[in-house]
Amino acid sequence: MAVYRFRVTFEDYDDVSRDIEIKATQTFDDLHYGLHNYIGFDASKPASFFMSDDYWKKGKEISNRELKGEDKVNVTTFRNARLCDFIIDPHQKIVYIFDPEEKWTFHIELLKIVPVVDGNSPYPKCIKSTGEAPKQYPPPPSASLPQPEDFDPAAVAEPEEEAEPEVDAGVDDEDIPVGVEEVKVTGEGELVGDSDENSEEETEDEDEIL
């Protein structure tokens, strides 16, 4: 029994590759799940293999998508397609397109056909891994935080200044003696006014009576 050794590369990531061995009698369905097992993708999305020439021109399609109309006749399903029934070139090339929405494209090239060494060994298996595979679902970009230059200093309200309290002289109208027409407050808090003159006149009148 023969084993196919394929090299699988991303079309957009040439530095990432996986060398996968799979039995010639296994199906494209086995290759589909084996490939995603070694790159870490979710294999549940629709996919198609296209047998191609040396220039990666797509030919016969083998797919796991839902087939309608003429596709039921022209397209073979994964589970019904054994690798050995489609590999006709010792350096066969295959274009693999995964997930129609994201359109992940892979190039698969047959490197060598080798005999089975251990019949009990599970296949497919990866014998060489190069580079880290990209994320199938990249995280969404996080919202950017506003930069300092985005702030408007004029929009920042300045605190209102408190009005200085009025100084109360501490003298009410009721505190002004009767007969005093004008009252002044000295720095020591004493009342100064016409009352002093009136008090002197009253004293002179009392002296004349006596």
Give a quick precis of the structure.
The protein is of the alpha+beta class and 210 residues long.
Low-confidence stretches: none
Task: Profile the largest sheet.
Answer: 8 strands, mixed
Distance between the termini: 157 Å
Helix share of residues?
10-25%
What gyration radius follows from the Cα positions, in whole Å?
A: 50 Å
Structural class: alpha+beta
Order of adjacent strands in the largest pleated sheet? 5-4-3-6-7-1-2-8
Write out key terms for the chains shown.
210 residues; alpha+beta; 8-stranded mixed beta sheet; two-stranded antiparallel ribbon; 3 helices; 29% strand; elongated
Describe the protein's architecture and organization.
- The chain is 15% helix and 29% strand.
- It is built from three helices and ten strands.
- It has helices spanning 28-39, 71-74, 195-209, and strands at residues 2-10, 17-23, 47-52, 58-63, 76-77, 93-98, 104-115, 125-130, 183-185, 191-193.
- The strands form two sheets. It has an eight-stranded mixed β-sheet with strand order 5-4-3-6-7-1-2-8.
- With 210 residues, it is α+β, with helices and mostly antiparallel strands.
